[in-house]
């Protein structure tokens, strides 16, 4: 069975290295080239493990498409690349391109770049977007992005990147890692000296308190920020997360739309962590970029006119469709649903770009 194969690979690695950092564990579980979670399946939608905003309502991708078109105009209507990081099924990009089709000059100025590691999802994306634009390409990493101005979209991308955890102990900050318990025959956490990899200080932390760092998220943001600083453009990042004070242990496993064991299902559950938006904005500011937010997803969508768009759609819908439109919008915007936990930031290369919604 695939799960056992991945568990064996993890156990072998632990046997040779003593323990695995949580980031190495996440990387193996999510992205192992043969048995990783994203490599082996399409996790999205009702029959999958979780649902994302573009899968809930077309309004989400449509409004983002119009957001991109407005940014493009402020950038001087020049030739640019439209980039999506981790596009899932390609639904957001398909809705964004459909909604912005009414601006043919925008489409004519664009090349579209989908950054995706999972061949399975890239294939699904291809089928969903191939008719929406003549120039769409797939890239494995952000390093391959074209050297020109870019408009970058990332929805629920950064939460899927591996994190490290550190815990305050009586011996200072130590790293929380994963090891194998032979007696109980299961994976478990252990604490090891943190070495020099500690990203944040331990000022004011109580014993037992956990903090997280996201080295891959920061290095991807660094590449994007350097790119925007050099060639110009903007980025829009939407995800669940926090800004400011570290939030302790936010690592979670999700399977069949519910929480699952983090160590009990390697490769069989989605593993994510809340996004530290202030850390991402810090990286952007180091490159002298402008940052906007964080604001909540509910507020962002309201300012972009989500309710007005829903009213327009409702006019041409039957009763059943009307209910779907309204309940989708409620899920995206209501504070107790995705409206408040999900946050939005924008990053721009200069004050000539005033991103809508902030
Ligand atoms: N943005 C989509 C999907 C979110 S799921 C939506 O809103 O529906 C996370 C996506 O990120 C998946 O497509 C996954 O394959 C991709 N992904 C995860 N790690 C990645 C990485 N390091 N580089 C590129 N894509 C990655």
Describe the structure.
By secondary structure, the protein is of the alpha/beta class. Helices cover 39% and strands 25% of the residues. Strands 2, 3, 4, 5, 10, 14, 15 and 16 form an eight-stranded mixed sheet that branches. Strands 1, 6, 7, 8 and 9 form a five-stranded antiparallel sheet that branches. Strands 12-11-13 form a three-stranded antiparallel sheet. The chain is globular and about 65 Å long. Bound molecules: S-adenosyl-L-homocysteine (SAH). S-adenosyl-L-homocysteine binds next to helix 4.
Provide a concise account of the structure shown.
This protein is of the alpha/beta class. The chain is 39% helix and 25% strand.
* Uncertain stretches of 5 or more adjacent residues: none
Helix amount = 25-40%
Structural class: alpha/beta
Bound molecules: S-adenosyl-L-homocysteine
The largest sheet is: 8 strands, mixed
Number of strands: 16
Mean pLDDT: 94
Write the layout of secondary structure elements.
Blueprint (H helix, E strand, L loop, with lengths): L1 H16 L2 E2 H10 L5 H4 L12 H4 L1 H17 L5 E6 L5 H9 L4 H6 E6 L3 H11 L6 E4 L10 E6 L8 E6 L2 E10 L4 E8 L16 E4 L1 H17 L1 E10 L9 E4 L2 E3 L9 E3 L2 E2 H10 L3 E7 H7 L2 H10 L3 H15 L1 H5 L2 E7 L10
Parallel strand pairs: 2-3, 2-5, 3-4, 5-10, 10-14
Antiparallel strand pairs: 1-7, 6-7, 6-9, 7-8, 10-16, 11-12, 11-13, 15-16
Q: Which key phrases capture this entry?
A:
358 residues, alpha/beta, eight-stranded mixed sheet, 14 helices, 16 strands, globular, binds S-adenosyl-L-homocysteine
């Amino acid at each position: 069975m695939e799960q056992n194969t991945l568990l064996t690979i993890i156990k072998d690695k632990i046997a040779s290295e003593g323990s695995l950092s949580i980031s190495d564990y996440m990387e193996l579980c999510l992205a192992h080239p043969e048995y990783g979670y994203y490599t082996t399946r399409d996790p999205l939608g009702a029959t999958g493990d979780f649902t994302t905003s573009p899968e809930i309502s077309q309004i989400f991708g449509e409004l983002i498409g119009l957001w991109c078109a407005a940014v493009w105009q402020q950038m001087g209507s020049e030739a640019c690349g439209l980039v999506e990081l981790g596009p899932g099924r390609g639904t957001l990009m398909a809705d964004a391109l459909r909604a912005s089709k009414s601006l043919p000059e925008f489409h004519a100025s664009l090349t579209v770049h989908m950054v995706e590691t999972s061949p399975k999802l890239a294939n699904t994306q291809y089928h969903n977007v191939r008719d929406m634009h003549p120039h769409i390409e797939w890239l494995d990493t952000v390093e391959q992005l074209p050297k020109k101005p870019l408009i970058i979209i990332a929805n629920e991308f950064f939460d899927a990147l591996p994190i490290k955890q550190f815990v305050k102990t009586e011996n200072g900050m130590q790293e929380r890692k994963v090891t194998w318990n032979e007696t109980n025959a299961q994976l478990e956490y252990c604490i090891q000296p943190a070495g020099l990899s500690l990203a944040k200080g331990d000022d004011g932390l109580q014993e037992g308190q956990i903090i997280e760092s996201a080295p891959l998220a920061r290095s991807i943001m660094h590449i994007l920020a350097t790119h925007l600083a050099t060639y110009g453009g903007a980025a829009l990042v939407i995800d669940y997360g926090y800004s400011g004070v570290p939030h302790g242990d936010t690592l979670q496993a999700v399977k069949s739309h519910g929480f699952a064991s983090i160590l009990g299902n390697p490769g069989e559950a989605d593993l994510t962590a809340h996004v530290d938006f202030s850390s991402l904005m810090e990286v952007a500011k180091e490159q002298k970029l402008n940052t906007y937010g964080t604001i909540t997803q509910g507020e962002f969508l309201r300012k972009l006119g989500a309710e007005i768009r829903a009213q327009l759609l409702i006019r041409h819908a039957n009763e059943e469709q009307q209910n779907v439109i309204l309940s989708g919008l409620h899920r995206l915007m209501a504070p107790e649903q995705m409206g408040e936990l999900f946050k939005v930031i924008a990053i721009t290369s200069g004050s000539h770009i005033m991103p809508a919604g902030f």
